[in-house]
Amino acid sequence: MTGGADLSGRVAIVTGASAGVGRAYALALAGAGATVVAAARTAGDAAAPARHTLAEVVQAAAPLPGEVHARVCDVEAEADIAATVESTAGTFGRIDVLVNNAGIMTPFQPFEVSSEDWDRVMRVNVRAPYLFMRHVAPHMMRQESGSIVNITARAAAFLPKGKWPQTTVAYGPSKAALNRLSYFMAEELKPYGVAVNALSPGVVTTDTALALNPHLGSSRSAKPPTPEVLGPALLCLAAQTAGTMTGQVLHTDDFPHGWP
Predict the structure, then answer these.
(1) pLDDT tens for residues 185-204?
(2) Which helix (H) or strand (E) covers residue 200, if one does?
(3) I need a labelling partner for 226 at 20 to 30 A (CA). Which of 32, 62, 114, 246 fits?
(4) How far apart are CA 173 and CA 175, in angstroms?
């Protein structure tokens, strides 16, 4: 088990779960006993699992107390989102945790973002989490329980030029919108006992991040994308209800001393 939480009997959906942060969250939840539907675009070959595929995550979860089930899902397609939610509820009878992790962190110069690129960042980083919440909410409302965790970033906050790369012109506003959406949904779902929080994993040495900044690996603040490192904060939020913690934007770097 990772982080001390016991999520036995809980059913979770994690988006963007084939690699990096999402993979770590899926394995952390399974390590805490949860049944996890790992959603991503790349299924992979179960007979020969490759990195960055759902097949590899399922294989990695085999020794854990919980389970990971692969689900191919393109978060840009609402039909895929709806099918993932309904399949999860139909197969396992409930949905207790939703981790909206899938996201795009493409660098753009401040005045060089095309309309198409801007729209795609917003589709993946803002619209997809909203659609997942919209489809999951009726199940959690009927249960009168559940926890939604939207994965955000410090880039959502205002930082003076020079304190943050200026290539986050689309990414930063998308995460700021996700934070505002989290606040809104927390109030909307509070009467039903459902928690909605946003979590920033901080600086993580995923392949995507290292491609953007090869020197990241030598940074003291950077963390490896492992369930042992990233999992405890996520598991804490996965166990919340509207009565214990909701409507918060939190940072992994502050856990467990600044919160819960």
Answers:
(1) 999 999 999 999 999 999 99
(2) strand 194-200
(3) 246
(4) 5
Q: What predicted TM-score, i.e. pTM, was given to this entire model?
A: 0.96
CB count within 10 Å of CB 159 equals 13
Question: Which stretches in the chain have pLDDT values below 70?
Answer: 1-4, 163-165
Chain centre to alpha carbon of residue 112: 28
DSSP character at residue 175: H
Total count of domains within the chain: 1
Which are the catalytic amino acids? 171
Please state, in angstroms and as integers, the Cα–Cα distance from residue 230 to each residue in 174, 211, 234, 258, following that order.
Answer: 22, 20, 7, 16
Q: Write out the two tokens for 229.
A: 């490192």
Contact 95/85 with Cβ under 8 angstroms?
yes
Question: The domain spanning residue 202 has which CATH number?
Answer: 3.40.50.720
In a domain, 212, yes or no: yes
Mean pLDDT of the chain: 95
Span 1-57, pLDDT tens digits: 454 689 999 999 999 999 999 999 999 999 999 999 999 999 999 999 999 999 999
231 in a structural domain: yes
The amino acid that residue 219 corresponds to is S
